[in-house]
Amino acid sequence: MYPYLRYTRSIVHAVIANKKGQSLDLVQTSEVIVRCSLTDLDPMLEMNNGRVLTVYDIGRTDFIIRTGLGRLLLKKRWGMVVAGSTIQYRRRIRFLDKVTIKTHIVGIDKRWIYLEHSMWVKGQPCSSMLLRTGVTEGGKVIDTTRVLKSLGKEDWELPPTGYVAEWIASDADRPWPPVGLRV
Asked: How many folded domains does the chain comprise?
């Protein structure tokens, strides 16, 4: 089941943080702390890999709200989509572990905003996820220049480099639909 209570609590905390002057600039990193609960566990008694993706939603929502993007999305009736992701797992997250979720922007191109999430337990990285996200209007992804202009950041640039640029290039070569599933 989706962790609606935990998610709602994180939204309330992000809104309160903004009201207390703890908003973030787009270049900053959001940090949210959650506990690995019983409903997060798989049969190996560690956080389920699918739950990791769901818990990253909490970090992304905090980042969106605290940077002002959330308010802009509501005001303009825009949406936000995830159009691709890649993830690496390095350490297990166990029951009751205190998990810090870090979220920041690692690149922006004409169409996409690339976010990176990471989970940390006791100062050790456990997983990292790279996301391709887009802002939508009427169901279609809009240019990031419109989004940045609406945020008062029209001169801000962060072109994807390094592993982010490599992932973008590699993903562009990936056949769609998947080769083994074509009709």
From this structure: 1
Task: Give the whole-angstrom CA distance, residue 151 versus residue 81.
Answer: 18
The rounded distance, in Å, linking the Cα atoms of 164 and 133 is 13
159 belongs to a structural domain = yes
182 pLDDT higher than 70: no
Determine the Cα–Cα distance for residues 151 and 120; give it in Å rounded to an integer: 30
Cis peptide before 43 (omega within 30 of 0): no
Res 178 pLDDT > 90: no
Q: CB–CB of 123/69 below 8 Å?
A: no
Separation of alpha carbons 116 and 105, rounded Å: 6
Is 101 inside a domain boundary? yes
Q: What is the pLDDT of residues 116-172, one digit of tens each?
A: 999 999 999 999 999 999 999 999 999 999 999 999 999 999 999 999 999 999 999
Residue 82 pLDDT > 80:
yes
Beta-carbon contacts of 138 under 8 Å, excluding residues fewer than 6 positions away, are none
CATH code of the domain in which 55 resides: 3.10.129.10
Owning domain of residue 80: 4-173
Per the domain annotation, does 183 fall within a domain? Answer: no
